[in-house]
Amino acid sequence: MNLRMLRCTGMAALLLLTACSQKTTADSAVSMPAPKSIAVEKSPAPRFTPPAEADIPSGPLGEMIRHGRDIFTDTPAHAGEFVGNSLSCSNCHLDAGRQANSAPLWAAWGMYPQYRKKNGHVNSFGERLQGCFKYSMNGKAPPLDSDVLLALETYAKWMTTGAPTGAKLPGAGYPKEGFQPPQAPDYARGETVYSKNCALCHGSDGQGQRVADHTVFPPLWGPQSFNWGAGMHQLDNAAAFIKANMPFSRGDTLSDQDAWDVAIYMNSHERPQDPRFNGSVAGTRKKYHDSPLSLYGTEVHGHVLGSPASKH
Ligand code: HEC
Ligand code: HEC
Questions:
Q1: How confident is the model over 57-82, as pLDDT tens digits?
Q2: In CATH terms, is domain 187-304 a member of 1.10.760.10?
Q3: What is the Å distance from ligand 1's center to 64 Cα?
Q4: Which of 20, 30, 131, 240 is 20 to 30 A from 149 (CA-CA)?
Q5: Which one-letter DSSP state was computed for residue 102?
């Protein structure tokens, strides 16, 4: 089955499930718009519009752009040796990296090289991509001179066609600046938000759903999800992503409190070890997770998150 057919299968499944969900969820005027039509900001700033897929040029440059797009939207199939879970880049960077407020590629490329606190030095764009492979994809970093990174870089650069470089564009990243929970986030409330708004697609066990060996609804925790080093394990990233983008096709419908509560619920579950694990969970927490935004190394229902002996 080719990629387009797989995506159609996914969409058909999505339509069915979304239709069913109308019975169980409140206030859902669910139709199924294409992801790019979602409005996710309260007072939308003028947005950069990236080129459409039909604008990909022909010739060798176009082939490389397409290769990058394929890696981005079906990472296990096109860069499998660097992937350790069942996610694809576009599961978190929606609409093939186009969607504002889901860390779109067109807003990222022009901002590198950039200093990152996470590793304490200036990162090239390629190194930033390597980070998402190591942590979000629970895999291995493709070498900086690899075809995989070249293709992704070419795709990202093409996305920025016509955009100013060096300026932070509206819609960049996940909208977490100043995004605070009204009350302290709460696991039990989050569990309720989850069963009402998320379980339908991601499963009550958080393991998502696969159709014909292809991830249709990605897992949110467990062995096939992002690991403890990934940006999404941080509560502010998760809450902002969820608020702007989830439930899928109905971004910006949860209250701020619900988004934070469900983020703490999601990130209170086990997931693959942080690849920077230094032999002890407490030591790894101290070195890399010393923040209230990380639950790694904290105890939830009698289990210390990140402890290697735990079952996933
Ligand atoms: C589990 C979710 C997830 C997956 C899967 C994922 N990413 Fe990310 N990505 C993130 C998060 C979280 C950030 C940080 C966003 C922020 O700081 O606002 C990020 C940031 C980025 C950035 C920098 C964005 C910016 O504005 O500076 C790029 C580029 C990127 N990812 C590319 C990729 C690529 C390529 C893949 C696939 C190999 C991938 N990501 C897979 C969650 C994910
Ligand atoms: C209608 C189905 C649907 C519902 C309901 C839904 N999601 Fe998703 N979710 C998706 C799909 C599909 C993707 C991947 C998007 C893509 O690839 O374009 C996704 C991606 C994600 C991701 C990033 C990828 C990953 O696996 O980490 C997170 C986190 C997430 N959803 C959390 C939630 C939360 C929390 C809720 C409830 C508030 C929710 N979703 C409700 C369909 C859904």
A1: 999 999 999 999 999 999 999 999 99
A2: yes
A3: 20
A4: 240
A5: S
